[in-house]
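[step 3/7] fold_predict: job queued, chain A
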Amino acid sequence: MMDSSIAQQRIRDLEQRITALTWNDELAMLSQAGLQDAIEQLPGGVYTVIFADVNRLKAINSATGSHVQTNRYLRDGLRVRRGELAGQLFGDEFLFILPHGADAAGFCARLTRQLASQPLSQSERMALEAFDGPNARLSATFAWEVTSDVRAAVERLSRDVLAQKAARDRRA
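[step 4/7] structure written:
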């Protein structure tokens, strides 16, 4: 039989590990594991699910040789308000879950402004301009859906955005 103090310590250790896995401090948002957990715990209802793919993030990372500055841009550019859930699915793909009735277009416009206002170094700006022309700024491709099935919406939206991104890259 396990001593209760040892059991309590194991529980605390597990809780800390879960917290570490679910929160990305560099970006001040949930990790992929955290998003999955949050989606599981959402109360039944209708939500606005927004999928975003940040454009040309790899070019910026290559220009700086580090993701530290890029994470600062993302943290500030993808900043959300109370009641808006944000998380990183993969390197440059993010998910936002908003309460029912949220203005998805307005939300995406706000994030677009926030991303575009991030101060880029000369090498980062040149890396973006190589793909997107003069005065290129950080930007994202968005897709959204109002749904009660958040998990299915995430799958559909990610496919839609990634198809848009692939088509854009073929044209470039």
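[step 5/7] annotate
The beta strands are 23-24, 29-30, 47-54, 85-88, 93-99, 140-147.
Helices lie at 4-22, 32-41, 57-64, 68-77, 104-116, 122-132, 150-171.
exit 0
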